[in-house]
Amino acid sequence: MPSLDPTFAALPLRELAEAVLAKARELGVDHADVRSERIREQSIRLRDAELDGVNESVDSGLAVRVVHRGTWGFAAGTVQTAEAAVRLVEQAVRVAEVSAPVNTEPVVLAPEPSHGEQVWISSYEIDPFDVPDAEKIALLGDWSRRLLAGDAVSHVDAFAHAVKENKFYADTNGTFTTQQRVRMHVALEAVAIDEASGAFETMRTLAPPVGRGWEFLRGTGWDWDAELAALPGLLAEKLAAPSIEPGEYDLVIAPSNLWLTIHESIGHATELDRALGYEAAFAGTSFATLDKLGTLKYGSPVMHVTGDRTVEHGLSTIGFDDEGVQAQQWDLVKDGILAGYQLDRRIAQLTGLGGGRSNACGFADSPGHAPIQRMANVSLQAAADGPSTEELISRVKNGLFIQGDKSWSIDMQRYNFQFTGQRAFLIKDGKLAGQVKDFAYQATTTDFWGAMEAVGGPETYVLGGAFNCGKGQPGQAAPVSHGCPSALFRGIRILNTVQEAGK
Amino acid sequence: MTALYSPQQLAEKALELSTADAAVVLVEESSTANLRWANNTLTTNGVAANRRVTVISVVNGVEGTSAATVTQAGPTAETIGALVRASEQGARAAGPAPDARALLGPDDAPGLQGVRWDEAAVATDIEVFTGLAPALGESFEAARSAGQLLFGFAEHSTVTTYLATSTGLRLRHDQPTGKLELNAKTPDFVRSAWGGAQTRDFADVDVVALAAGLSQRLDWQKRKIDLPAGRYETLLPPTAVADLMIYLYWTASARDAADGRTVFSVPGGGGGTKVGQRIGVPGLRLWSDPSAAGLESATFNAVSTSSSQASVFDNGAPLTSTDWVRDGVLERLLTTRKSAEETGLPLTPPIDNLLMDAGGTASLEELTRSTEDGLLLTCLWYIREVDPQSLLLTGLTRDGVYKVEGGEVVGVVNNFRFNESPVDLLSRITEAGASGICLPREWNDYFTRTSMPALRVGDFNMSSVSKAS
């Protein structure tokens, strides 16, 4: 099992925190927290099996957040000395003072038990930063060449993105946490070009980003050999496939595509800060407003969606959030009805939801940013004895089976969305009947989830996700996972994207 | 004891410690301050200071020249050596870099070498808002009286970039960036209006006037008109045009075009690009200019990561005014020295601003008055690529789609999802207004410096209705 990085553990962070909290108390704050983070990232990119670039970065710094006379104040810097930390407290209080004329609603945080000293480390086997670069580049080169060997493949892009996050947190509540987590995102995309017409198509691997280490590239959690072997043939079939006839289709959607629809139409819509209007000028609001809690028909009765920061290998899984709140799991949609929200300490107190306790969704993406309410792992639960993907397909007379996420867009209230995918197969009388191209599905959130007739069994369940969920101003990018089974939807509008372009 | 080096000292020290065959050091000294508000009250705020040092090591091997980049926040005199070594190890482990070229030197950057090199970095802090905060407080009061809610964000940041190379380049750039976004809503969130401004120092931002303008737009929204999906004559204001053109600009890699993978590829393979072909209406110019008044940006190339449109080996290359589209004809695509050689195009790296002019002189108000029957948009949102071949983009209208009849705004229309290609639009412009500095709505986290005209398009594709407001 991995252990805490000794170079992070050796930093005198406890002393630094004591200095910050003492200064904050001296300046009479209502609350103070201090966060020291080190985020190490490496990105390796290949193009046509040649190295395009190796980039490594270490973001580190110190952040101090206070509530001073009912107003937030936040200051961050990269110098991690006790002197600089005390200066940050003074700056944070000054930020609160300058902001006071704009603040009309005193900040009060929901209570959270003091957790004392805690250490938490995510579940992974091989630290990607312990693997030699030459080995990583050679592996991606080998995988790229396997794809390039395919008859139809003209180009291949490959990348591996590794992140190791170390975080220390302390607050005036007496919680001191030290945490470490690792994640990997690896993908290859092949391009096929029809030389005669100039038409081209792309296809990307479906392997999800995961809260795992380098073992993910050695066969733990994904069958790369099988996926790489199948991809060139699938891409050739897509290039030659007929353009889809637009209209209404029944859809069987694989987890590799459905995770993103869950993210956009459920994950963001059940963020309470959005429902309250905190994101109204930017990311947007939510149709799932607070007055509809417990009554809104979100979808069909087979719909059960949970939020959690606890699932193994989940990208937003953590021991404690950036407000010192312990990770939890709870219901967001139960039996098709809106059942809960994602909370941080301020809005939990403001609304009394969650029994007046945050469900640990306060998160900052870096030491330079203040925590805001960020997304938990939001997952659609499988049916205990639910059907296989083949069984779902067998129930469809005229439809599509869609795999892999690609293009996505949804409106600012999370009603109207449009998604494409990596590939889609026609379903005719319960059987797959070859690929079609140029498809997009468009729907309104509650209509779409209301049209979900069945969810697959646990054997169809896959944890998907993304590294780069964007929210907030200044913009923050957070990693998040979404698990789901295959699922069957009736009567969804399919567009032809070439016709949409007016061609 | 931690010695606190100046950014220039860190750059010199890194080059001194380098044992690579060549090296590039970028030191970015940045500071930022922000205020965010919603429902007529503060939600978050903050200040942050950051120093990022990037070391790019170049190693000449038997098989060719390789490079690797390592970036670290806040290295000290004690840790800069480890950063340099990590970069060198990365370069030695890497295979040959296809974009490798000899690094540029002082002679390649005439007029830029050493300018203000020794001066301290510029900085900002929360005091930049001591005028704005009380004015915002006043606007909240006014909004409360009018039964309205204000939402928004103000951010000021400064970045000083020091670029030093083992070949003797010493270049420096100061980049202030400021933006204000303001959104007014009725308490039920049904009516919503947005305005934005970009600024270098916040001295020229009048938030009270901006709020008053939004209040008028909320009045326009008292009458609601339902319209179905379809193609409509549409007035795109400068902010909407900016968001569409930024995406076009990001997709303008010469290498990707030559590889046959973008809208700028010539069908039929053979590595051709559409440079020299007409893609827009006559008179249309799309360009970047580091010295554009009010939109000043870096006059030299500073690249920490090689990509299809920029190369770490081209660091320090001077940037000058570049026409991407001139008189409707595609003139240039984004190149590195490598892709320039391969495509026969000149070296034209990315520049951090974008301007469009189509010879129009009318204001948006004048364009509205000359509209018989059409839609007037406020801005576009959630813009994503649907099909790279045509550069088909999808997205939403947001914060006010107005129905114009006989030159008058007669009410607000439901929002739409659109499907449109910014490249295709260039040839369908029926009228353009005067170009002016504007804040892009969707992309202003990444790209703020734009000057665009409002455009009239006869048949904008509103693909479906969005119930969002």
Strand content of chain B: 35-45%
Sheet-strand content of chain A, in percent, reads 35-45%
Number of helices of chain A: 11
Kindly give the count of domains of chain B. 2
Q: Specify the overall morphology of chain A.
A: globular
Domain unit count of chain A: 2
The class by helix and strand makeup of chain A works out as alpha+beta
Oligomeric state as shown: heterodimer
Residue runs with pLDDT of under 50 for 5 or more positions of chain B:
none
Gyration radius of chain B (Cα, Å) is 24 Å
Unreliable stretches of chain A (pLDDT < 50, length at least 5) are: none
| Rg of chain A, Å, rounded | 24 Å
Instruction: Tell me the greatest interface.
Output: A-B, 96 and 106 residues
Q: What separation lies between the terminal Cα atoms of chain A?
A: 56 Å
N-to-C span of chain B: 56 Å
Helix content of chain A: 10-25%
Characteristic key phrases:
heterodimer; A: 503 residues; alpha+beta; PmbA/TldD fold; 2 domains; seven-stranded mixed sheet; five-stranded mixed barrel; 11 helices; 22 strands; B: 469 residues; ten-stranded mixed sheet; 9 helices; globular
Q: How would you describe what is shown here?
A:
- The complex is a heterodimer of chains A (503) and B (469).
- Chain A is an alpha+beta fold and 503 residues long.
- Chain A folds into 2 domains: 6-240, 2-Layer Sandwich (PmbA/TldD fold), CATH 3.30.2290.10; 247-500, no CATH class.
- Chain A contains 11 helices and 22 strands.
- The termini of chain A are far apart.
- In chain A, helix 4 (133-148) packs parallel to helix 5 (224-240).
- In chain A, the strands form 5 sheets. In chain A, strands 1, 2, 3, 4, 5, 6 and 7 form a 7-stranded mixed β-sheet that branches.
- The model of chain B has no long low-confidence stretch (mean pLDDT 96).
- Chain B starts with 6 loop residues before the first helix and ends with a strand.
- Chain B is 19% helix and 36% strand.
- In chain B, helix 1 crosses helix 2 and helix 3 (132-145) packs parallel to helix 4 (207-220).
- Chain B folds into 2 domains: 7-217, PmbA/TldD fold; 223-469, no CATH class.
- Chain B has helices spanning 7-17, 80-93, 132-145, 207-220, 238-250, 254-258, 337-343, 364-369, 422-426; strands at residues 22-38, 41-60, 65-73, 149-165, 170-185, 192-199, 224-225, 230-236, 285-288, 322-326, 329-330, 354-357, 373-376, 379-387, 392-398, 401-405, 408-413, 415-420, 429-432, 436-438, 450-452, 455-466.
- With 469 residues, chain B is an alpha+beta fold.
- Classes of the chains: A alpha+beta (503), B alpha+beta (469).
- At the A-B interface, strand 2, strand 3, helix 3, helix 4 and strand 15 of A face strand 1, strand 2, strand 3, helix 2 and helix 3 of B.
- Strand 2 (50-68) of chain A pairs parallel with strand 3 of chain B, so a sheet runs across the interface.
